[in-house]
Amino acid sequence: MFGYRVPAPDEAMLISGGRRHQGGAPFRVVTGHGKFVLPVFRKVRFLTLAMCESEVAETCVTKQGIALTVRAVIAFKVGNDTESVVNAGQRFLSDQDQMSVLTGRIFAGHLRSIIGSMTVEEIVTERQKLATEVLETSKTEMAKIGLIVDSLQIQSIDDGDTGYIEAMSAPHKAAIQRQAQIAQAKATQAAVEAQQEAARNQAEYNRQTAVVQAEYAAEVDRAQARSAQAGPLAQAHAQQEVLAAQTELAERAAKLRQQELVAEVVKPAEAEAERIRLLAMADAERMKIQAEAAASYDRVALDRMLIDQLPQIVKEASAGLANANVNVLNGTDGLGEIAAGLVGQGLTILDSVRRNLGAPDSPADKNGETAKKPSSGQIEIQ
After folding, report:
1. Residue 307 and residue 161 share a domain
2. Domain containing 49: what range?
3. What is the chain's Cα-based Rg?
4. Which of 168, 188, 211 is the C-terminal boundary of a domain?
5. How many domains does the chain have?
6. List of residues 6+ apart from 107 with CB closer than 8 A
7. pLDDT of the residue at 174
């Protein structure tokens, strides 16, 4: 847009013209945003806020009167506040490169002043102290011109041809050299001891190797001797084992033949004898059964014949009673008893015949009792 200006992030826009601004500044300071500027009536310029660098190489005399050339680098910039921008703008706006030149001159003066109050030993050994003192003494002066210092680095300190710094470092160099020599001697001694230890280890290894080889050779000789003796012994053992195996085989063959004979001769003979014995027992049992059957048949036939003759016996007995003089004392019961008595007498006669023929006794005889006449009535035969 025509008339609208915007500063860069590392710049401050200075607008001059018009009435005087706050604090009596001859221009307005704008940073971080844009501003509309009337052409012709206003003028715009820009002041850098970026980091700047200045190098210093100054010959300084120490407290001891020894000249030292000190080289340092200063990093600085314009302050961000409005007062610092106004101070720097009024001094460097037309020639901003003069900021580095002026800063270098300021720091060179402060270096000469501070180094003049220090010894070479302090300067060499306490560089940070030197830098801090230079910064502190220059801070106020740099603020007046709108600059702030970020860092100061002492790059080198040189005493020229005087050799003071080198002489100062000689004891330390000698101590370092002594330490280096001692370390070298220790290293050499350690190397020698290591070599000696390696030689001893090698000798011990060779000795152990010789011993092992001698033991191995002796073991080989013993093994060969055992092998030479083992031939006949092994053959004898083998023959003995063969004989033992043959003997065991013969014993097994004899046992097998014995078992075969038992199976072929003894067992069949025993089986045949058992068969004959069983047949004889079966024939005897058969004959016994037949005899018992025959005897039983004869008794049955005899009993049958006697039973068939029993009515005739009773009849004959009754005929004998017909001609007898019988007195019945108890009436009808007496007649029944007479009939029963006749039958009992017939059975008694039958038993007598059986005993005479060898037949078994009747049930009454087996019990040790004979047939008795009934006692319920009395029969009298005359």
Report:
1. no
2. 4-168
3. 82
4. 168
5. 2
6. 54, 56, 72, 74, 134, 138, 152
7. 82
β-pair partners for 326 = 381
Domain assignment present for residue 309? The answer is: yes
**Identity (one letter) of the amino acid at 355?**
R
Q: Which amino acid is present at 363?
A: P
Q: Residue 371 class from Cβ within 10 Å (0-12 exposed, 13-18 middle, 19+ buried)?
A: middle
In which residue are the tokens 């980091």 written? Answer: 51
Tokens standing for 226? Answer: 């055992």
- Ranges of residues in the chain with a pLDDT under 50 are 326, 359-382
pLDDT for res 314: 59
CA distances from 143 to 9, 73, 85 (A): 22, 18, 11
Amino acid identity, position 329: L
Pairing of β 27-30 and β 4-5: unpaired
Task: For 207, list phi and psi in degrees, rounded to 5.
Answer: -65, -45
How far CA 76 is from CA of 93, 115, 185, in Å, comes to 16, 22, 52
- H helices of the chain, in order, are 82-92, 98-115, 120-125, 127-144, 164-261, 267-322, 331-357, 363-366
207 belongs to a structural domain:
no
Number of Cβ atoms within 10 Å of the Cβ of 77: 20
If asked whether residues 303 and 164 sit together in one domain, one would say no
Last residue of a domain, one of 104, 136, 168: 168
* Residue tagged 């000190």 (tokens): 70
- For the segment 78-114, what is each residue's pLDDT rounded down to a tens digit? 988 888 888 898 888 888 899 999 999 999 999 999 9
Q: Does residue 190 lie in a domain region? A: no
What's residue 51's pLDDT?
Answer: 92
What CATH number is associated with residue 94? 3.30.479.30
Quick one: pLDDT at residue 299? 64
pLDDT at 52: 92
Query: 368 φ, ψ to 5°?
Result: 75, 20
CA 62 to chain centre: 77
With respect to residue 314, please indicate whether it lies within any of the assigned structural domains: yes
Residues 23 and 163 in one domain: yes
